[in-house]
Amino acid sequence: MSSVLAKIFNQAEITFSIRNSDAYKQNFMLLKKLVDSLVFSDLNLNPILFSKAAFQVKNKAPCTFINLYEKQNSTFSMSIFIMNGNYKMPLHDHPNMCGLLRVISGQIKVESYTRIKSDIEDEILVKAEEPKILDELSASAVLFPENSNFHEITALNEPAAFFDILAPPYSDYNDSMEPGSRHCSFYKKIMFENCGKSPILKLVKIDVPDHYYCDSVAYKQPDFMR
Ligand SMILES: [Fe+2]
Questions:
Q1: Is 108 helix (H, G, I), strand (E, B) or coil?
Q2: What pLDDT digit, counting tens, does each position of 104-149 carry?
Q3: Is residue 177 part of a domain?
Q4: How many distinct structural domains can be found in the chain?
Q5: Do you know which SUPFAM superfamilies this protein is assigned to (predicted)?
């Protein structure tokens, strides 16, 4: 198993441990640097999963999800999403979470949105950021509770895949109604103020879009994750 993945795992444990909260910023930058260096071959995955042919199978979901690491009460999760070519993962959020996203195959477009203040309670207004096109040569994209926390992700032309770390992980679906839970919501966008380069949009919660579903592939965890 790649030592890069082991280093990332180790650095994620350090970064997101409450004991190290004083050095969070420095640790996060070290983690990002390591994630930026991760490549497909570090993950020991079957390349067929990432091929066009994998998505030509009858009844194949538009996304393949591989859960690399998540434990009960763990401070972070690691996973891989493989998306069919031209598939757009719908706009969603990561409440009170940080994240790093590193492309390991193909090319993706990330459209991120940052929440801004609204005079109306519960109204979600966001500022659109400049879309980013990312591939294996790009640095990882990051999201924080207050910045770039909403995004939609498109695989450009061919199937594309990204590795991500979320900290803390999403809550268990069963806990989704608990206060402070971190449940993924989906949104539609409504133009609120078109002021040129960074339009302001209003986001309205929607049900999980019918087109969005994943099938999953089991991952043989290396010893250091157990
Ligand atoms: Fe996401």
A1: strand
A2: 999 999 999 999 999 998 999 999 999 999 999 999 999 999 999 9
A3: no
A4: 1
A5: RmlC-like cupins
